[in-house]
Amino acid sequence: MARAPRSVKGTRDLLPPETAVWAAVEQTARDVFARYGYREIRTPVLEETELFVRSVGETTDIVGKEMYTFPDKKGRSLTLRPESTAAVARAFIEHGLTSWPSPVKLFYMGPQFRYERPQKGRYRQFHQIGAELLGDPGPWSDAEVLLMLVRFLGELGFTSPTVLLNTLGDEASRAAYREALHAFLAPQREALGEDSRRRLETNPLRILDTKVPAERELLAGAPELAEHLNAESREHFDAVRRVLDRSGVAYRVDPRLVRGLDYYTRTVFEITAEGLGAQNAIVGGGRYDRLIADLGGAEVPGIGFAIGEDRLVEVLPEPFRERASAQPWVVVAALGEVGGGEALLLAEELRAAG
Ligand code: HAM
User: Fold this and answer.
1) For 175, which DSSP code?
2) What is the pLDDT of residues 56-110, one digit of tens each?
3) Beta sheet of 265-272, edge-to-edge order
4) Buried b / exposed e across 41-72, counting CB within 10 Å, b at 16+?
5) Share of the chain above pLDDT 90, in %
6) How does residue 125 score in pLDDT terms, banded at 50, 70 and 90?
7) Model confidence over 228-252: pLDDT tens digits?
8) What pLDDT score was predicted for residue 94?
9) How far is the C-alpha of 120 from the C-alpha of 137, rounded, in Å?
10) Distance between CA atoms of 253 and 241, rounded to whole angstroms?
């Protein structure tokens, strides 16, 4: 006999009472985000492949090897979204949201798909809760986005999330740095692994977040991006930090934080959590001032983040989890032949009364 069908590798079912925890996390996000003026956007799970190639970037791991891409029956190349920022940008352009009062603040939640090797905290279908702020280039928006995130995590019971912060500078700063890093690493090419050797030519900044110990050692002497920032980029970053300092948000500047998607400019950040092993980033985000224009839209800057909901739920503080999964019970006990019907009607009366 054929075996019973099973869920696809890297995907999973969420069952009660766990689903109640997920719903409570999502409701908290809705509540907190609304206080900052965000409204929900829902974009399709399917997009044209081209969208991600042009935004996330051809040389990234996501586009290079992790996308679920296939031709539809007419031969068009489609992709199950690996992330949603590109989709929000596409929708922003497609529906002319430049005409809305600026900034446009949107949030989303839903499944994303990446063909990665499944392990703890890493799935092929995973879920993100994300937010994007479009239309404001200024540093206060960067700070506000981070404050919203920290408030959200605080309401879930995370007391001191570790916020890692960095700036990639603008395009000019980054080009100068890319050259300096290449010049430093090229003579040591032989000491690099295969992945990093390839990145040296395509995207040398990505070598900075290597996990290979020998490469990390090599990088200890590498030039730093901070040395290549122009005055404008430095001022932007300093302004973000000043607000965060005043608001009491704890963060750490990590000069090696570069993020794995090509659309970022200036501020980038991640939030990590204990207890997840190697996959410890629960939030990733940053500014993307060129994305909308690069996709054919107007010059509209943006900033946003996505929370990995699977990972977040895994390390959720216990009191929130308990509150979320507690369900009140009412027992109506039926006796005898007629009791069943009477009990049912009585229960209905209780339900009608709420
Ligand atoms: P990302 O860093 O690729 O950024 O993903 C954000 C979060 O999604 C990660 O920190 C992680 O928690 C979760 N995540 C990613 N891949 C997996 C996986 N295979 N299994 C479980 N969780 C995963 C983005 O996606 C950007 N769109 C974020 C952004 C929004 N930047 C600006 N706006």
Assistant:
1) H
2) 999 899 999 999 999 999 999 999 999 999 999 999 999 999 999 999 999 999 9
3) 39-40, 104-113, 125-134, 302-308, 281-287, 265-272, 162-167, 251-253
4) bebebebebebbbbbbbeebbbbeebbbeeee
5) 80
6) very high
7) 999 999 999 999 999 999 999 999 9
8) 98
9) 37
10) 9
Specify which residues 79 forms β-bridges with. Answer: 47, 69
pLDDT given for residue 300 in this prediction: 98
Residues in the chain: 354
Buried b (16+ CB within 10 A) or exposed e, 294-316: ebebeebbbbbbbbbbbbbbeeb
Beta 77-80 vs 104-113: how paired, if at all? unpaired
- Give the number of other Cβ atoms within 10 Å of residue 292's Cβ: 25
With bands split at pLDDT 50, 70 and 90, how would you rate the model's confidence at 303?
very high
267 vs 307: CA distance, rounded Å: 17
- Mean pLDDT value across the chain: 94
Strand partners, 231: none
List, chain by chain if needed, residues with CB within 6 Å of any ligand 1 atom.
83, 85, 114, 116, 121-123, 126, 128, 130, 132, 260-261, 281-286, 304-306, 308, 310-311
Are 109 and 43 in contact, with CB atoms under 8 Å apart? no
Structure tokens at 234: 């430095």
Contact criterion met (CB below 8 Å) for 41 and 35: no
User: Which residue's alpha carbon is nearest to atom 11 within ligand 1?
Assistant: 308
In this structure, how many other beta carbons lie within 10 angstroms of the beta carbon of residue 325?
A: 14
At 326, which amino acid appears? A
Question: Hey, what are 30's tokens?
Answer: 């809705």
Q: Which residue has the tokens 């809705």?
A: 30
Instruction: Please state, in angstroms and rounded to a whole number, the distance separating the CA atoms of residues 94 and 191.
Output: 46
* Alpha helix segments (H runs only) across the chain: 18-35, 49-55, 61, 85-94, 139-156, 171-185, 194-202, 213-219, 231-247, 291-294, 309-314, 318-325, 336-352
Check whether 1 has a pLDDT greater than 80: no
Report DSSP state, residue 119: B
To which residue do tokens 């702020």 refer? 133
Ligand 1 atom 5: the closest Cα is on which residue?
284
Distance of CA 93 from the midpoint of ligand 1 (Å): 23
